[in-house]
Specification:
Blueprint (H helix, E strand, L loop, with lengths): L5 E5 H14 L5 E5 L1 H5 L6 H7 L3 E4 L2 H10 L5 E3 L8 H6 L4 E3 L2 H10 L3 E6 L12 H10 L4 E7 L7 H14 L10 E3 L3 H4 L10 E4 L15 H10 L16 E6 L2 E5 L4 E2 L5 E2 L4 E6 L14 E4 L2 E8 L4 E5 L8 E5 L5 H8 L3 H6 L7 E5 L2 E5 L7
Parallel strand pairs: 1-19, 2-3, 2-9, 3-4, 5-6, 6-7, 7-8
Antiparallel strand pairs: 1-10, 10-18, 11-14, 12-13, 14-17, 15-16, 16-17, 19-20
Helix pairs in contact: 1-3
């Protein structure tokens, strides 16, 4: 690594997070790790550590992502959660990749082509994204699946983990699957990371999909609004929102180092067209990271250098400048995200969620996997392609 800008992934934290999740929520047979989006920016090379933590199934968004997983691990089951184009089904079958079906005509075409593949039937319980909405369609696919076109699983996507929306989605799921014997379906999975923590286990579900929670993000404490508290009191309604039982640590950190420190005299400007113009003398640290590396990097965010916090003043494509003091020196390590600067805090300051912060760290930034004292570097992903 020549430019000391990198994302550090603490693999031991990842493994321990999963062990904690599997211990607290121990009623499931199948624990899916959702590793779409390059494992939420962590890099799909972490899958061995996820498996050590208790994962026994992987889930991705596209066939391209599934094939990348297969290049790293030939054995673990992989589910593509979105329907794929028909011309990709044979490649999925050849690589033992499980697909999602949510359309009768698509299903019938697979029957006609006599393709052997495992699939999960997706139910649209209210998201209006993917999934069958008809009880008749769900029944047809269930009854016409066979040992070759094998219905291994059944799932939905819950938009909420508590309240009226949650209750309605569960009710819709039950109505659409009323003609399906759920006990005969090998895998039934409804919950995802942040709905898992919000209610008691769904009795008929034996699988759960773990996404951002694996990386150290359990749900925030829920405090009902005063209006909701009054309504609940007057109606006698009790919230089905369950406090988090998890103890997790964020596994991703973003670092660089100082490549230059400059003294800026009173009245001088910094950056293109005077992006920063102060009326007093100051020091700036030039840092080799810009919006081409971290697209949500912007003036006003903080960095931590030697346990002190400083503000970023200017952001360019490849570098940024922070206003510092004369204690900052060349090669000092700079934390953008980590134990001192929470990803959630940065997300709130940027007006986005933690998902977007993690996925905004581009593949120009190497991922360094840290497992206790050992480290391995996943280099700039375009090199050699």
């Amino acid at each position: 690594m020549y430019r000391k800008t990198y994302m550090e992934v603490d693999c031991r934290r990842l493994e321990n997070n999963l062990k904690n999740i599997c211990e607290v929520y121990n009623g499931y047979k199948y624990y899916f790790a959702v590793v779409k989006g390059n494992a939420y920016g962590h890099g799909v090379e972490i899958i061995d550590y996820l498996i050590k933590g208790g994962i026994n199934y992987l889930a991705v968004s596209s066939l391209e992502e599934a094939l990348e997983i297969r290049s790293l691990n030939k054995k673990i089951p992989v589910l593509v959660m979105e329907p794929i184009m028909f011309d990709g089904v044979k490649d999925a079958a050849l690589n033992d990749i499980t697909i999602t079906i949510d359309d009768v005509s698509y299903f019938n075409k697979l029957l006609e082509e006599n393709i052997a593949i495992k699939f999960h039937l997706k139910i649209d319980s209210g998201m209006n994204r993917f999934g069958v909405k008809s009880r008749d369609d769900a029944k047809y696919i269930y009854e016409h699946s066979n040992e070759k076109l094998f219905m291994e699983g059944l799932f939905t996507h819950l938009s909420s983990g508590a309240g009226e929306v949650y209750n309605k989605q569960i009710s819709t799921f039950k109505k659409i699957t009323e003609d399906i014997d759920l006990n005969k379906i090998p895998i039934v999975h409804l919950d995802r990371s942040l709905t898992l923590e919000s209610h008691e286990k769904i009795e008929f579900a034996n699988g759960v999909r773990l996404g951002i929670v694996m990386y150290g993000f359990n749900k925030k404490e829920y405090v009902p609004s005063k209006k909701r508290q009054i309504i609940n009191f007057l109606t006698g309604r009790k919230s089905n929102f369950v406090p988090s039982k998890l103890s997790l640590s964020m596994s991703a950190k973003l670092y660089t180092n100082v490549i230059e420190v400059k003294k800026v005299n009173k009245g001088e400007v910094v950056g293109y067209a005077g992006m920063s113009d102060d009326t007093e003398e100051k020091y700036i640290a030039i840092l080799p990271i810009g919006f081409a590396d971290f697209s949500y990097l912007k003036p006003g965010l903080s960095v931590c250098i030697g346990e002190k916090f400083y503000k970023i003043a200017v952001v360019n494509m490849d570098v940024c400048m922070a206003i510092v003091d004369n204690s900052v020196k060349y090669s000092d390590r700079v934390e953008f995200l980590g134990d001192n600067i929470s990803i959630r805090d940065v997300a709130e300051k940027c007006g986005v969620n933690a998902y977007k912060i993690l996925l905004s760290i581009t593949d120009r930034v190497p991922r360094v996997y840290k497992c206790e004292e050992e480290q391995s570097e996943i280099k700039y992903r375009r090199v050699g392609k």
